[in-house]
Amino acid sequence: LPGLLAECGSLQSEEEEEEEEAEPGPSAAAEQRREERLRRFRELHMKRYEACKLNSQEVVEEDKRLKLPPNWEAKKARLEWELQVQEKKKECAARGEDYERVKLLEVSAEDAERWERKRKKKNPDLGFSDYAAAQLRQYQRLTRQIKPDLEQYEKLKEQHGEALYPTSDSLLHGTHVPSKEGVDRMVADLEKQIEKREKYSRRRPYNDDADIDYINERNAKFNQKAERFYGKYTAEIKQNLERGTAV
Predict the structure, then answer these.
(1) Where do the record's region annotations for Disordered lie (predicted)?
(2) DSSP type of residue 208
(3) Residue 126: helix, strand or coil by DSSP?
(4) What is the secondary structure of 131-186 as a DSSP string?
(5) In Å, how far are 107, 108, 207 from 113, measured between CA atoms?
(6) Is the pTM of this model over 0.85?
(7) Are residues 164 and 154 in contact, defined by beta-carbon separation less than 8 angstroms?
(8) Which of 80, 151, 211, 223 is most buried (CB neighbours < 10 A)?
(9) Could you give the CA distance from residue 211 to residue 242 in angstroms, rounded to a whole number?
(10) What's the chain's Rg over C-alpha atoms?
């Protein structure tokens, strides 16, 4: 019994202490507000520290970007794309598939049409600018038409050996005989050039010996058109007038 009374007394004292803690006084409330302010201050301090850290990291990254070449981003994207293409080629080779065919299956009709329009605009014919540019365009056009015959190349290499690669001491002049297919290709290309050249128009030179039958430039153009359309019908009348035998 004395033990139970002592235990009850201890429980009552603990309940009184809990009640005192549940009803804080003015000093306890001030201490809580102070702790809350300190906590918020620590949070603001940590946020400021994180902001300074991120800002310094961004400054370092920006300095690195400024030191890189101006087209580094494009080069990086190009290299990443090439790596992806290589990986896809390896995967297709492992599966026994053709990479070009797989790539075309992934292209939409809109993309194909856009690429085709872009390809047509890539090399527009700007007309004649100078002889050097015309020669370069002709060279590029001819080289695009070249389709190497590897079988014929292997045969020539077996036939001539090291002499196929001429040096200053080589004597291959007159030994090469072109094939019939090569001659036909050359003839077809020359005929295309002649046909295209006939479509060009150039300014006709002025003929000092021609008869002057006009009073100004406009009248000369009119007479040329009239001669073009009605010259064959009035040729005899004009001859009679010149001979003085016209009736």
Answers:
(1) 1-35
(2) T
(3) coil
(4) HHHHHHHHHHHHHHH----HHHHHHHHHHHGGGGS--TT---TTT----HHHHHHH
(5) 10, 9, 52
(6) no
(7) no
(8) 223
(9) 12
(10) 47
